[in-house]
Amino acid sequence: TLLDRVWDAAALDAHRRCLEDHLALRALLVRNDWVAFVADGSRLARRSGEEDTPMEEGNVPFVAPPEMAAEVDLPHAGRIRGTAIPRGITLLCGGGFHGKSTLLRALAAAVHPHVPGDGRERVACDPTALAIRAEDGRAITGIDLRPFLRSLPSGHDLARFTTGNASGSTSQAAAILEALAAGSCCLLIDEDTSATNFLLRDPWMAKLLDEDREPIVPLLARLREIHDRFGVSTILVVGGSGEAFRIADRALMMNAYRAEDATARMLQIREAMGEGTTAAPTEWPPPERRLPLDRLRRSDPRVKAVGARKLLVGRSEVDLGASGALVHPSQARTLATILSAVLSREGPAEELPALAEWAADRIETRGAGAFSPFPRGDLAEVRAQEIAMLFNRLRYGAGRGRPSPPGTEAPSRG
Asked: CA 150, 409, 175, 113: dihedral to nearest 10 degrees?
């Protein structure tokens, strides 16, 4: 037939088998209460930061440490062995350049299946997992930052915090709260891309700065509460501080790209550690927020995808580079069609979590072109997490380059 001449039937079948194995592996995560699985033999390193293809030379195959090894049965690959990461708080430790961040990036991308030959075909992560990092200069609109900020010297309202120029600490705090509201059950955090003053405050700095002089509640004082209160797991890359030992369930050591279980050693060190940082306050306001979508709808800006992780909304650029799940321009184009539809007054009026869920459900049931006014073959599926990221980072009221309405900008970056 004509299609037989165009398509490689063997290659298509390989894609099908790869997809079905990934879906089976994702189901096993739920069944076994795991947050991630990395098969032995996986080649995680990429050729460069701009390419999503595997590195040719020196790409050490991943091998599970015996203490964290598990075997699973897949429909096509059969029985395979790999590293199972249970739910909870997991540390990825090790020296610089030993593969910690490479593993974390592989997990962030493993919310989607990979093509045969990618090297990460049998790596799976909780499908709601979201990479969290500091994003200097991003916009934040009306979010309750009180779980992570006690006050600001400016006296700014933390219950409806708004700024067009967030600091590293406020942007990362907002990203975590936004992820919780969007239904993420796993946070992926790297200390290299985190705001240090938000991540931790060691005992020595705590002796110098009294609580009334340091408004930030560090993340490490909240991570255990985030797990216990919301059932959200965290995989955290650490290499410069052992403060995370106080709240972690387990530690995976990367040594020259080879994984070792360091949990027992971590627990021994924790027993010898002295006084820690100040405990977090008990108050945690309900994670509710509303966004003034009508303000943006009145401006009717044009929306254009730029690459895989950026959109132009009017004259304003929205950077979605923090997401490790946006890997192709087709996904950004889908986000652009969703935003264009919402600006045309489709969907719930103001409630962001409901809006993101509504859009994601429509994509899942009708396909990636669900929001396009005409048939297109250049779109790809996106998750509720990336849809929420887009709306959270819009500069409301900016429209065609107009400034945000008076009173919506925080007086300082905090």
From this structure: 180
Please report, as a single letter, which amino acid is at residue 325: A
- Rounded CA-CA distance 404/292 in Å is 12
With a CB cutoff of 8 Å and minimum separation 6, the contacts of 340 are 303, 371
- The continuous run of DSSP H or E covering 166 comes out as none
Residue with tokens 């979590």: 353
Give the residue from 345, 333, 328 showing the smallest Cα distance to 294.
Answer: 345
In sequence order, what are the residues at sequence separation of 6 or more whose Cβ sits closer than 8 angstroms to the Cβ of residue 373?
Answer: none
The residues facing 83 across adjacent strands are 38, 69
Q: Which two tokens stand for residue 310?
A: 């950026």
Where do the DSSP E strands lie in 42-168? 46-48, 51-54, 69-74, 78-86, 89-93, 123-125, 130-132, 140-143, 161-163
Q: Alpha-carbon distance 371 to 309, whole Å?
A: 19
Structure tokens at 266: 């971590």
Question: Percentage of the chain with pLDDT > 90?
Answer: 69
Model confidence over 293-316: pLDDT tens digits?
A: 666 666 667 899 999 999 999 888
Residue with tokens 């076994």: 32
Are 200 and 277 within 8 A, CB to CB? yes
The closest alpha carbon to 160, from 292, 280, 347, belongs to: 292
Residue 234, beta-bridge partner list: 89, 187
Both tokens of 114, joined, read 């990979």
Task: Give the pair of three-digit tokens for residue 237.
Answer: 């890359």
